[in-house]
Amino acid sequence: MNHTQGLDSDADKLTTKKILKTWLPLVASWMLMSMELPTINAISARLADPKINLAAYGGVTFPIALTIEAPVLMLLAASTALSRDWYSYQKLKKITLWMGVILSLVHVLVAVTPIYDFIVTVLLQAPQEVIEPARRGLLFLSPWTIAIAYRRFQQGTMIRFGHSKIVGEITIVRLVTVSVVLAVGFTLKTIPGASLAGLAQGLGVSFEAIYAGLRARKILPEIKAAPPVADTFSTRKFMVFYIPLALTSWLWLLWQPLISGAVSRMPNPIDSLATWSVVTGLLFVFRSPGVAFNEAVVALLEERRSFQALRKFVWLASAITLGFALLIVLTPFSEWWFTRFANLPANLVPLAMNVLAIGVPLTIISLFINFYQGIIVYFGKTRAVAEAVAIFLFVLGLILAFGIFTDAYLGVYVAVTAFTAAHLAQGVWLMVRSREQRQRLAA
């Protein structure tokens, strides 16, 4: 990858407008996706046995699915960085499909064999009532990994070639599919909440992947016309680049089962798991602008005089997103959300509001994490990203262990405190490890 900066001119300077043009479609896509789980939870909360099904899907099914999917999570960043010509695109597509097929088979194997029982009863120690509802949800979610892998690969290429607007279109297809399935399920009222959630998301990502493949045809002529890069793509080079990222995403997504397993060992696990399942949806909304910034940074650092503009922009975006989060937390909106939209039982609403307030700092932390991480990925020094995630898990595990050991605090409070503190530690480490790269860019 060419990291040299050319001669500066005002015409070449990266402007806020250019950053917004790349970033906002990605933010819109992530924000739309962040509404998926809250919508699913809202429907589940209006069907039979709401606490059981919310705890089953949010506390067991989804964490297991995300853990299996983790190795493909960074394909978006990898495709953004590596799909630079036709040869690279074809090679990366083949690798993506192989990864997706193998991990999808693992998903099915876990769901239909005693491996599931071991994970749920021994590792997570989930309440007995949620075990079978969660298994059914996991089976319906079987297309998850291969669909996510293919979609993220195609979206990365779109971002690379300046078509980030298409990313939002793809997300809309997914949400429309999920909404239709949920509407049918809510009307029939014969499908348990956890099963309906798995079916909705499984079909949603499947249609999303199909649409991504169709829309990718628009940019194939541009990819074919791109000049071959001097640093030819190879499987070996990809492995060196991607394995730390894949390990990173797998380690990072361990927070889901770690929190579920820890909360199940603390007081009142059903209420905590049900509340956490709903609150994480809004926390994802808080974090979405930051998550979208990673790919924007990787793509925009190719521009001349980009670092100073991106550094200034991350502070501006932090102030705006923090204001947005505070507006939700400090006004009656959060109570309306949990009472009317999420349909949480009345006794859980004050708990959910308190937990959400503790997670407000994630808005700022997420932006800076992805700013520093984007710089590191741009320079190909992906080991530092894995180190940061290891620190994230260490801090998370330490605080969760304290909660289990003392057995004095409600699990959902321990979970959100651990989650926020772990993100802060991750951001500090990335800041330290990206210092050399930031100095090079500033110079």
**Cα distance, first to last residue?**
18 Å
Are there runs of 5+ residues with pLDDT below 50, and where?
1-9
Return the structural class: mainly alpha
- The portion of residues assigned to helices is over 70%
Secondary structure: number of strands: 0
Enumerate how many helices there are, as a single number: 21
Amount of beta strand? under 5%
Structurally, the number of domains stands at 1
> Major sheet: size, sense and barrel closure?
none
Order of helices and strands: HHHHHHHHHHHHHHHHHHHHH
What value does the Rg take, in angstroms? Answer: 21 Å
The overall pLDDT, averaged over residues, is 88
Which term fits the overall shape?
globular
Layout of strands and helices, then pairs:
Elements: H1 16-34, H2 36-44, H3 50-69, H4 75-82, H5 86-112, H6 114-123, H7 131-140, H8 144-160, H9 165-188, H10 193-216, H11 220-225, H12 235-253, H13 255-263, H14 269-300, H15 306-329, H16 333-341, H17 349-358, H18 362-378, H19 383-406, H20 411-433, H21 435-442
Helix pairs in contact: 1-9, 1-14, 2-9, 2-10, 2-14, 3-7, 3-8, 3-10, 3-13, 3-14, 4-8, 4-14, 5-7, 5-8, 7-10, 8-10, 9-10, 12-19, 13-19, 13-20, 14-15, 14-17, 14-18, 14-20, 15-18, 16-17, 17-20, 18-20, 19-20
